Amino acid sequence: MALLLALALAGCLTDGEDSRSLSFTSDRGVDSQPFPGNYRTEILAFMKTYLNNPAGLRQTAMAEPVQRTVGGRLRYVSCLRYAARESDGSYREAHEHAIVYVDGRLDRVVENAGELCAGATYAPFPELAALTR
Fold this sequence. Notes:
The structure is a single chain. The N and C termini lie far apart (53 Å). The chain has a five-stranded antiparallel β-sheet with strand order 4-3-2-1-5. The protein has helices at 2-12, 39-50, 126-129, and strands at residues 58-70, 73-83, 95-102, 105-110, 123-124. By secondary structure, the chain is an alpha+beta fold. 20% of the residues lie in helices and 30% in strands. It has one domain. It contains three helices and five strands.
């Protein structure tokens, strides 16, 4: 009986999506998503905590949020590109990251942006290069 109860409760722990996905907001699956009005401020605050050393980023650029299909749902996605400093002081190659928004708020970062950022139009993002520890 206890085993059946444990199995039933374990089924409640997942929502059927990839359990390795890190999401910061509860996704209600609403198709009409609001535009993320404070996206620049949210990205700067998040990147300050996301990066081990946010100081000295180079080649910083960002694409304005556009609607893309993410996991079968229409979401706003902003693409971010930067070169981070390595621990030895050298710089790695600039990488693209996709920032996904749900209900107008930053929800998650997709490190291998690939298809999500295909055709993105980047503009300089000097505020990101000015971050400090």
